[in-house]
Each structure stands twice: as structure tokens, then as C-alpha cells.
Amino acid sequence: QITLKESGPTLVKPTQTLTLTCTFSGFSLSTSGVGVGWIRQSPGKALEWLALIYWDDDNRYSPSLKSRLTITKDTSKNQVVLTMTNMDPVDTATYYCAHRPRGVATRFDYWGQGTLVTVSS
Amino acid sequence: DIQMTQSPSSLSASVGDRVTITCRASQSISGFLSWYHQKPGKAPKLLIYAASNLQSGVPSRFSGSGSGTDFTLTISSLQPEDFATYYCQQSYTTPTFGQGTRLEIK
Prior knowledge:
By secondary structure, chain A is mostly beta strands. Chain A is 0% helix and 50% strand. In chain A, strand 5 and strand 6 form a beta hairpin. In chain B, strands 2, 4, 5, 6, 9, 10 and 11 form a seven-stranded mixed beta sheet that branches. A four-stranded antiparallel beta sheet of chain B has the order 1-3-8-7, with no helix packed on it. In chain B, a hairpin with a 2-residue loop joins strand 7 and strand 8.
């Protein structure tokens, strides 16, 4: 059974760096083709994909946010960490991590419950 | 970025209705298209991947079709639990989602 859970601060101040951790179970991030992605959703808005890291440490970022994002993994701890610099109130959102299964097409078949991050002074 | 445009943005339907939601890509994405639905306060759930492949455990009343730039999600007979917001997502390039289609009870 695959599960994922996001953790991190619920409140950050503008200009601060956000660090979120995704802790997962039920799969290994050393399995070929597998990845973990981050997706966010501002209140009342659509989903926005942020970043994806693959089993081989290859990573992908949203072009519009690439300069602010870093995604890393710790396979031994079953964790993926996303950092986002220079936070702004517009970054207030629920942040989800999700499992990317093997296969040519990237889709997200298991999701965490999400964590709401508010950016405010 | 490849832009994904869904239509309609919202629709009202009744239990038992057949419903179709459309997703159009700003350029060809071959068959790299997935569909999700999301209920308020919950994480999205994968329904369809690679345009027409039903995700394991998803009821067969959901189906997907299309290739290139135009895709459809069809629900053959709406059930009460299907009222939610639906999103398409392309993965031909770095993933992008559509703006969502809210499916409401008439």
C-alpha cells in the first residue's frame, strides 16, 4: 500500500525559504522509472505542478518557478524534500506530494493529504 | 509551457446523465494526457492516464479518448459520488494541468 505524507511549516514570512518534506511508504525511490512530484493548489484555484524527482536523481521543474525550487531525495529515509526560496503571499497554497509510477507517461496515482502553507508577515 | 484548456468550466447535471468534458492542448501532446477528479478538501484522484487507460480501481463508467490536441473524458451514467472538479494534465513536456471543470448537481 502506497502512502505519502507532507510535513513542514504552516506559516512562513515573505522572503523566507519554505522547506517541505514528503515521507512515503509502500514503494522505493530506487526503482527504475519511479518518481515523486510536488503539486500545489492555491485556495479556490487549479492544480499547479512544481517539481518531480526520478529514481535516478533526474529532476524536472516548472519553468516559471525553476529559479526558486530545489527537489532532493533521501532514498534511505524514504523522503523527498522540496525547497522554495523567496516566498510571497501568492505562494499561499496546499502543497501535495504524489507518486509517479513507472511508464512513459507521467501521471500521479497516489497523493498525500496535502499541507496548507500560508505566507504572511 | 503547454497550455491546457478545459471546457466547460462548470456544468450542472443529474444522476444518471451522460457527461463529457473536453481538454484542449496548445500544441500536440500525442496521448500524454491524464484525468483526475477532486472533491473539496481532498487530494486529486487519478482516473485515466495515457488518454484512454482506466486507472486500477476506477469504475468503468469513466472513459477517455483523444490524441494530439483534443481529448475528452466521458462519464456514462453520473453517480452521486462523481460530483467534483475534474482536471486534465499533460505530460508531453513538463506537466501542466487544465484550469478545472466543476461538475455540480442540477
